[in-house]
Design brief:
- Keywords: Membrane, Transmembrane, Transmembrane helix.
- By secondary structure, the protein is mainly alpha-helical.
- The protein is 73% helix and 0% strand.
- The radius of gyration is 25 Å and the shape is globular.
Length: 243
């Protein structure tokens, strides 16, 4: 083989190699992601975790996407320790502003359900840092996350019921997912306030929205008794009003 032929062959091999390096991961990424998705839809969450822990998944999938699918599987399994481990990993990963907002919101909701005030407080600190890093539209979204997260924290961990009027007003224009969230936190607030009847009414609204009980009432906020205001004598900063 002469030098010219050798050079030509080497060039072709180099082009083929570069094509494989650039194209193959994308092809395999789709295969791995579809496999994990199909396993998830079939309810085989252990298989999802096995797929995501394989060398091909580590090679093809972006780290954030890999851990996000792992988080979904652990949540579906109701594996609290698995969720905790995955959140610890994900909170240390680089992400887009949107990915970061979604992750921080999920982390706070998880720690709320676990009653883990310490980790929830840490998430609030991460949210503050996220706000400081954002600009433009991302900053507006980050500020909204900060507001909602402070409300969530105060309601869940400080016994606040200072957001009742605001959330009841927001029900009228909320979409289905947001309405469910508002009804849930209104239920918690009325529970904090000691009004178990109204707390149950808002929980029932969530059940009705998912067809779990007959929906025979209009989806409006329960009428306030005369003399009851939004926060009554709750005027502490942040709405932290425990009695």
């Amino acid at each position: 083989m002469d030098i010219q032929t050798l050079i030509t062959t080497a060039g072709i091999c180099a082009v083929v190699f570069m094509l494989l390096v650039s194209v193959l991961p994308g092809m395999l990424r789709g295969v791995i992601a579809n496999k994990a998705q199909n396993q998830f839809m079939a309810g085989d969450f252990d298989a999802v975790l096995k797929t995501l822990s394989g060398p091909m998944a580590s090679f093809c999938l972006p780290k954030y996407n890999q851990e996000y699918m792992r988080l979904n599987a652990y949540e579906a399994k109701q594996d609290v320790e698995g969720v905790q481990r995955t959140l610890d990993v994900m909170l240390g990963l680089r992400a887009t502003a949107q990915q970061r907002r979604i992750l921080l919101s999920r982390a706070l909701n998880f720690y709320e359900t676990q009653g883990d005030e310490g980790r929830a407080t840490h998430v609030l600190e991460l949210i503050d840092s996220h706000v400081a890093e954002c600009k433009g539209e991302a900053l507006d979204a980050a500020k909204e996350l900060k507001r909602d997260s402070r409300q969530t924290f105060n309601i869940a961990f400080r016994g606040s019921y200072a957001y009742i009027a605001e959330m009841e007003h927001a029900l009228a224009s909320a979409d289905a997912d947001e309405r469910a969230r508002l009804n849930y936190y209104l239920s918690l607030q009325y529970g904090n306030k000691g009004d178990e009847k109204r707390a149950r009414e808002y929980l029932d609204r969530i059940a009705k929205s998912y067809g779990l009980v007959p929906n025979d009432k209009d989806d409006e906020a329960p009428t306030e008794d005369a003399g009851e205001g939004v926060g009554d004598d709750c005027h502490e900063e942040g709405g932290a009003c425990r009695r």
